[in-house]
Amino acid sequence: MSQVTAKEHYSSIPPKRRSVNEKSFFQRLWKQMDIQLMVWPGVLLIFIFAYIPMYGVLTGFMDYNIFTGANIFENPWVGFKHFEDFFNAPQFWTIMRNTIVISLLKLLVGFPAPILLAMMLNEVRHRNFKRVIQSITYLPYFMSWVIVGSIVMSLLSTENGSVNMLLKGIGAIDESINFLSMKDYFWAILVSTNVWKDIGFNSIIFMAAIAGVNPSLYEAAEIDGASRFKQMYLITIPTIMPIIIIFMILAMGSLLSAGFEDILILAQNPSLRPVSDVIDTYVYRVGLQNQRYDFGVAVGLFRAVVSVMLLTIANYLARRTGNSLW
Amino acid sequence: MVVTTAFLLTTVFAGCSKSTNDPKPSTPKNSNVSTDEKPADVWQLGSSDLEFSAYAHYGWLDLPAKMEDVPFWKYLKENKKVNIKTIAAQGNHSQLMTTMMADDDLPDMIFGNRYDPDIMRLYEAGKLVALDDYMEKYPNLKKWLDTKSADMLRFPDGKLYQFPNWYTSRPNGSAGYVVNKKIYKELGSPTLETMDQLYDYLVKVKEKYGEEVIPYEADRAVDGQGVGLIYTGFKENAYYRSLNGNTLAVVDEANNKLASLFTDPAFHESQKFVSKLYREKLISQDMFTITDRGPVQEKLMSGRVAVFGSSDPMPYASAAHLALSKEDPEAGYFMIWPFHKAGLDKNKIYPGGYDLLGWNVNVITTAAKDPEKIFAFLDYITGPEGMVIQYYGPEGGNWNGLDENEQPILTDQYNAKEVSEIQAANNPVMIAGNTAYIDPAKMKFELAKPVEERNWLARYQESVTWKTHIDQTALATHLTPDPGTELADTSVNVLDIFLQTLSASSTAKSDEEVDKILDQAEKDAQALGYNELLEWRTERWLENKKMLGQ
């Protein structure tokens, strides 16, 4: 009986309810003031630094003049001229190939590496040993590429380079190999340097995820007689899967960013260009060094559009597993 | 007309006598100017305060932060009431310049590279002050800068906007080969003249010293330098400038035009030679990968280089020579006459070039409140008094007065050590140098010293480098297409090909591969419009030659 009265009561006052809700929206806002205060600076920052400068993409469709700036009234509009210039550039296909191949290689090797490291560290029982390994692995992340680059260069140098000396010492080679000027080795050097630099830091997030796995699951598995490998395969991986998928989606979005500083520094030798030139280094060379900002913006815009498409596709695919970003 | 000329001459004369005899500004001005002319309102440096902002448009050079940091600037501040507020690029010059342009917040004076497209951009945007009227009014630039050179410096509207630095009328530069004295003696001091002899020598070095010593160290091979020198040894009258990104063409004397570098037989031959050195480990294996000069200097300093080739060996080799010879007088480095291919005339081999217009320029922007005063300041520096004070300190110390050739007269207190310290301290920021004036002055002092006290380079300037540098002004000026044009894109793309090719062919696995790489480069470059670029450059080059009367 009371249920019926309640129903009647609600249905009899729909307009009033709306007004109460409207009020309560602001009330809710006020109640959440502390949280709102944390969100708004971030929103504001994104608005100021990511949305307002977006009018700059117009530069990609005009002949930019540095003295007038991105003045939409003075500079001549040229439509897709700069885009066409890029697509027709003689280096276009080389650049696209390098960008995609280097990205995929980085994804293929660099993505699973920190997960593996996190899982391996998780199995280490000795706390101090684990900490030392963690510190050692994430230290390189805080070094700038200039430093890492010089370390790699002196390691691989033909004159007194440790790698060459080691290889000669064990009799693997007779004469020094000039690693950093050979096209065949460049991708391998680039990818392994990247993995070395980032593996420790990137593994932190996965370590945190693994730490969140309910220990009773392992205990139960152990009672059922599951080996350590079985436990990793059947418990650890499935439970951290959502995180892996989310990071995978984000990585897909940056497929056309194959890196910049690392390539600029490691590929000093111009004869490596056929394997090392990627979109970012090309934009840097043509757009910034030769001050063709309009062209640089056009290429950047092209990359952004492709990235958004890739991100959407990856998210769409991931949604089927129930772990999508949105 | 006659009156004007007379007037000008008197101003010139008045200016000269003032700067030579009396550095004080309060000398009577133009007392002998005819009365029907208005008295010239020539502003004397030091007669009133001068304050302006200045900026060096280089990634590797900043003007001194404080006037006191450099002796000459300190002198200017204390005696000439000059106060320069400097803006530092701190290695990020392109970005800073872009920001300043976009904000329209330009410095009053910019010191930069004559070939930098930014100077042209400023001119096109009407941001530069024309200097012609001032040049007529003030004595020194007018006197020392050749009229033809001034014409070459002019921009398309026929006006002069650039105040040159180190302009000259005679050869300068120090490109060439430096040989390690100790190794040379230990190998029996063989004749080193031809490329074959160089090769044999390098082989011997490798045999005797193994991996300890780098037989041939090529300075900045990525830019061409140490490798480019070798190219000039394979053809008489070849220009090192041919390998520069803003030229990238060889002179075809027969057809009076500029031709492709990639088809030049001498370039094929020199690259084969270089690749042979590379294959046989006679040349630094890291030359294209380690582009930092630090390791090169370290090798030179420790005496581990047998032959060093560079466009400017001076700063590295002379420091290394000093360090090595201090410990062992027999050690060190010496410079030799450039190598040539057997059969060529060694007197027609030029590993370096010089430019009548110098290298850097100063421009005055429309942001300057009083551009004339800044010009007067530059004009003072480029004159005898300004130059001598930079090199020998204030008058009354090491020198007193000028002789009939306007060269400084040494005093009894002349202190060679102090002079070299003054020069070293002033050296990085000489902004309106006058090579034509100071080189003979320097040489006069150098030759007065005993041999062992002489400046390391000065010893070889007279005997080697001044004779082995060729005038490349016509091949260097106005050959850069305007930024943003199709030709500019072509130029950038062809330069890209060249840099890749230079590295690839220098490290090629066989002579056949060198030919293949260069032929492919020619094909690629032609597909990008290299030929149109060459035709355009030929026109400019012919105009330059006409203007210079060459």
Note the topology:
The complex is a heterodimer of chains A (326) and B (550).
Chain A: H1 2-12, H2 14-31, H3 33-51, H4 81-88, H5 92-110, H6 112-123, H7 127-138, H8 145-156, H9 162-169, H10 183-211, H11 215-223, H12 228-253, H13 261-266, H14 273-276, H15 279-289, H16 293-319
Helix pairs in contact in A: 4-16, 5-10, 6-10, 7-10, 12-16, 15-16
Chain B: H1 2-21, E1 50-56, H2 71-80, E2 82-87, H3 93-103, E3 109-113, H4 117-124, H5 132-137, H6 139-144, H7 147-153, E4 162-164, E5 176-180, H8 181-186, H9 195-209, E6 214-218, H10 225-232, E7 250-252, E8 257-259, H11 265-279, H12 293-301, E9 305-310, H13 314-327, E10 333-336, E11 352-354, E12 360-364, H14 371-382, H15 384-392, E13 399-402, E14 408-410, H16 416-426, H17 435-448, H18 456-463, E15 469-471, H19 473-476, H20 486-506, H21 511-527, H22 530-548
Parallel strand pairs in B: 1-2, 1-3, 6-9, 11-15
Antiparallel strand pairs in B: 3-12, 4-12, 5-9, 5-10, 7-8, 13-14
Protein name (chain A): Protein lplB
Transmembrane segments (chain A): 37-58, 95-117, 138-157, 199-221, 233-256, 295-318
Subcellular location (chain A): Cell membrane
What does this structure look like?
The complex is a heterodimer of chains A (326) and B (550). The longest helix of chain A has 29 residues, at 183-211. Chain A folds into two domains: 6-35, no CATH class; 86-319, Orthogonal Bundle (MetI-like fold). With 326 residues, chain A is mostly helical. In chain A, helix 4 packs across helix 16. Chain A has 16 helices and no strands. By secondary structure, chain B is α/β, with parallel strands linked by helices. In chain B, 45% of the residues lie in helices and 12% in strands. Chain B has helices at residues 2-21, 71-80, 93-103, 117-124, 132-137, 139-144, 147-153, 181-186, 195-209, 225-232, 265-279, 293-301, 314-327, 371-382, 384-392, 416-426, 435-448, 456-463, 473-476, 486-506, 511-527, 530-548; strands spanning 50-56, 82-87, 109-113, 162-164, 176-180, 214-218, 250-252, 257-259, 305-310, 333-336, 352-354, 360-364, 399-402, 408-410, 469-471. In chain B, the strands form five sheets. In chain B, strands 2-1-3-12-4 form a five-stranded mixed sheet. Chain B has a four-stranded mixed sheet with strand order 6-9-5-10, with helices on both faces. A two-stranded antiparallel ribbon of chain B has the order 7-8. In chain B, a hairpin with a 4-residue loop joins strand 7 and strand 8. In chain B, helix 10 crosses helix 11 (265-279), helix 11 crosses helix 21 and helix 20 runs antiparallel to helix 21 (511-527). Residues 1-39 of chain B have low confidence and may be disordered.
